[in-house]
Write a structure and sequence with these properties.
With 315 residues, this protein is α+β, with helices and mostly antiparallel strands. It contains 13 helices and 13 strands. A hairpin with a 2-residue loop joins strand 6 and strand 7. Helix 7 crosses helix 9.
Length: 315
Amino acid sequence: MDAHLRALVAEHGVFLRREALAAGYHDHAIVALVRSGAWVRVRRGAYVFGDGWASLTANQRYAVLCRAAVRQASTEVVLSHTSAAGEYDAPLWECDLSVVHLTRQDRRAGRAEAGIHQHRGLLAEGDVVERNGLQVVSATRAALELTLLLDVEHALVEIDHLLHRGFTTVEDLRARYESMTHWPDSLTTDLVLRLVDGRAESVGESRARYLCWAQHLPAPIPNYPILDERGVEVARVDLAWPELGVFLEFDGKEKYTRHRREGESVVDCVLREKKRESLICELTGWRCIRITWADLYRPDEVSRRIRAMFRTPAA
């Protein structure tokens, strides 16, 4: 019985109550399996095996929840908004992972119920694609939908990722935006499209750039290349103000964990980063400011620190 249900999980991400009943389980057995942790109820009537669920990240669990919602939908739907963005591996920073966003394909009025938000939308040619075995809206449409759902900073983070990974382009976003007629809550869409930049490589970098905009600092250049005397690129800095002689590095945890070299300790990684910073300063004569995740929640303080490092007081 388990083999059949595991095959369903492999194919669809979840199995449904009716499939468990067909496999020989009865409701009392299902309740007992959920209580024991052998099965996990993703949402009412949809299950996965506990051993697989335990190893999933929050975003991966959200993807399973989305699959359950699609399988249980009573009409033809596609994943949209944040639910679609997740299928493009977007970070979903601080997004609500308890609500699945679906767009109906029959153009009838949508509704909200038990963690499901069905949207009514006119799906144009090219708006629906297949990804990871599911029908989802295109990355271009998903990006624009995020500007309707999220504030500027949160939308910027997700769209930067979609651009950086090559899932869409600013030109495609602009072209699709021009055809957005009668979309509600789209007043900030144009602003977001003016701020996005696919050169950003992380949530922290996108947020740091947003901080600069919100604090009226000069616009920095993301991922600025540093060249040595021979013109060979030796490093890239997260944000740079070349004319003002300052560069900014975002010290997120992953810089010293995920990007460690084989056999390198965290201390070794920190020392290598300090050596890299010294080299950049020697080559450019610039000053470095480092900020952390916590600093992003103190924008006024950070903006004062950045301004104090600029060469020209007028900046």
